[in-house]
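Cross-posting from the modeling subforum.

Setting up a comparison between two proteins and wanted a second pair of eyes on the formatting. Protein 1 (sequence, then structure tokens):
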Amino acid sequence: MNKKVKAYTLSEVLVVLLLTSIIAGMAFSVLNMVQKQLFSVQKNIDVKSSFRQLEQSLMIDFNRYHNVRFNDDKNQLVCYSEIDSVNYNFTTNYVQKDIDTFFVSGIHKKLFFAGKEVDNGAIDAMKIDSIGLNPNLRMFVFKQNDANTYLN
């Protein structure tokens, strides 16, 4: 009596292992591409969020303080009143407001006072364009001038 045991041959097992390894390799490469895309999306969200936080902070401070001045030599924006003041220091990679840091890079500023573009001194409006990673980010912040602005 010759009884055969039902089993897979060595070549069948090798083919299955080969196909499984190919499928697993493709799955890991797809997973890697998805992770890179998610990282890119998260970085984009972080840049836009920081840009919007800077816009919000500038808008609040422009309207909170009576006087807003820009010092071109120090690349510094100073918002001040009789009681308090706040400074914004613009660098190439970030903007620092006292203890807050806004990570925005590659920004181009235009300063205005009474509707005319200025380079230095008292300002009442500021236009900021991003020319770095996200060239479509723009903001325009302004304040209403009161009599105190023109007296100083």
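Protein 2 (same layout):
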Amino acid sequence: MLDQLNLSKVLFLDIETVPQTYNYNDLDDSTKYLWEKKNAYHLKDGGSPEDIYERAGILAEFGKIVCISVGFATTEGGFQLIRTKSYFGEDEKILLQEFCELLNNHYTYPDQLLCAHNGKEFDFPYICRRLLINGMKIPRILNMAGKKPWEIKHIDTMELWKFGDYKNYTSLELLTHVFDIPTPKDDIDGSQVAAVFYEAKDVERIAKYCEKDVVATIQLLLRYLGDPLVIEENITHA
């Protein structure tokens, strides 16, 4: 696939998620019961439901999306460019609607693809699940139902790095390090997103962090292709 890849046909994305409520005790009784049931394995050694609630954001049934950042790689005047844009806010349904409008209006052709790091196990299914929970239709490019494997237009930079080794998980942070991809080391990391959202109420800060991961994913795929990285001056954030 990579030797025939046209980067201008690829939409890169990353999502940031948080628990449905900041504190476990704010959940209703039914949700608390189901949270404990879902996490029975993690609780068998004596931990409490509150202790592991911080991981609720990674489960679509107990979390929600607060930001979807996308990136486009284009060539203009002989220079490779990256453009990013984010859909974010406190109302998950609104940001999902805006993201779906992008897909439904501009990513409907068979030669277009989506790309994310660990996207096949996290970003893509999480978005689809939250769309259904919000009573929304899944855009064609995201929907895998009834499709043959070669008809699914998804690229996963982590899956590409596995080379068939399905035991292996390699973070985007580690790969940017080993491939010498410059990334900002400032501001927040993923473990702080919920606090920034619920305490600081600064979702724009989360969006900036999310866009950095999108840029890193694009640069990583360029490394896979053996192409030069895009220089900082040619990266624009909307």
